[in-house]
Amino acid sequence: MKLHTVDFEPVGQKGQCQEDESLLDCAHRLGIGVSSVCGGRGTCKTCRVKVISGALSEPTSIELEALSAQELGGGWRLACQATPASDCRVMLPAESMSTSQRIHVEGLEVTVPPEPAVKAYHLQLNAPSLSDQQADADRLLEALYEQYQLHCRKIDINVLRSLSPQIRDWNWECQVSVCDDEVVALGPWPNRQLGLAVDLGTTTIAGYLVDLSSGQTLAAEGFMNPQISYGEDIISRINRVIKSPQEGIRLQECVVEKLNELAASLCSEANASIDSIVEAVVVGNTAMHHLLLGLSVKQLALIPFTASTGLTLDIKACELGINIASGAYVHFPAIITGFVGSDHAAMLLATDSYQTEGLTVFLDIGTNTEISLVNGDEITTTSCASGPAFEGGHIKHGMHAARGAIERLRITKDTIDYQTIDDAPPVGICGSGVLDAISQLYLAGIIENSGRFMPDHPRIRITDNQTEFLLVDQEEEDGQSTIVITQKDIRELQLAKAAIRTGIQLLLETNGFTEEQLGQVVIAGSFGSYIDVSSAVTVGLLPPLPLNCFRQVGNAAGMGAKLVLVSLSKCDEARDIVTRTRYMELASNPDFKKMFIETSHVGKYWLRHNKREMLENG
Ligand code: FES
Q: What is the DSSP string of 148-173?
């Protein structure tokens, strides 16, 4: 098989690519973050590249369908379909890059009295002598009992391996970290006791370095989940693992590598040693949880979508390849079901769902959206496939929430005002921008209730048989990309928002409530933190409640992971939340289809809301 050199611009990375290897696979092999929402199936168009020089394979039938003749003529190709036919240079536009997404790590800060699972003890030991030849480990365990009345029976084998030389280096004075009845770390006295909390999301990974004695967060950081290279949604990644178990190992390895990078980076920011991390807590959706643990994921994609295990797990970090203190555990809180993971339970924990007064909906919006209805002690949860539209996927000029993405937009009579991330020139539109655009188009009377464009607006045009509205015009703003919202984009958003709204409605109806009885809607997650709630209400994504009923709480799952790390009581509470949660499968509900069609309209519920407001205001 022939090899060709492919030069990826503007990242400036080159690599050898076999004649039958796709540009996407080649880019991913070289560590270049190219978007691939559909995992290379040729349906999302997020992997568009432009040929600058050289030859590529003939366009596949998928490309002929996905790209217009004009785009193909201009050198545009799908990286997942095209293979090199000679040495070549290709350009990756900003909207096709998956590396620089804005990552939300902040969330509501909840403080609890520190009560960690791993506790530190200061020991001063007597040095051995010819008249006292007790073994070093026995001496240490005996001292723990004598000085703290602690019945500690085990020492982790890695701790044991380094115990004798280290304890001599420290002149028989040390700090012992104990989890239950096991010594999991040893350090010089005094030493910081740190913990690592991780929210392992499908798109991003957020990490927090926490001082276990004070509960204080010392550093927080977010990274893209490197598994994106294998498909941006869960199903694409699971399909890859089903096709080749080797891929499962690769997916696991790349996340472990990123977690190690995260731990090292957080420690460097807090001027700490990674050996001081004596415990980690990881929350995530069920697929991320299973992939990290190397559990089978096939059954997650098959009816009835069951998890391998829902149990709370404590696994030695070294068994997973995670480099923290040598005997430390990684704690995985219990998961709810195959489609609702420990991240949702962590979100419910951090938002004090227990103590919420009145009927409340908790939402974590993503490609898969988890929704809980909490009424006192009762929690009913569901999940819906909301797709990638909120992350810019399947949208003609959609992109992640990265530099240059339109994130806010307002349409007045003759003008369109927009704000981009980092105030950079616009290169595409991210989920919150799409939501704003469609809400504004509706309010300006440019699209009707069904989502169809009204004819006769000067900014509406037809390109490749597709009606589209010109948001940013290249001719209008010299040198900037043309950015449009197409009829198909509106349909994508309608499907995504209908999935979520149907979930909310059916949860309410099944429990005998109506949306008018809702007291509060709590919205978590990256997308949920940046959306304009009034736009979300206008398009009918959220129920028509007064705006002060909505609470955006940022990365609440990460905050929940921190609580579990710092407090054993919170750890029990998280377990209790999972036990009390009843899962409701949407697809099996007889009203699902009818409700889905009804909620797919734009603005329908907004009209009802206006009517209600009018009634309330007399
Ligand atoms: Fe290429 Fe989706 S179209 S990855």
A: H-----EE-HHHHHHHHHHHHHTTTE
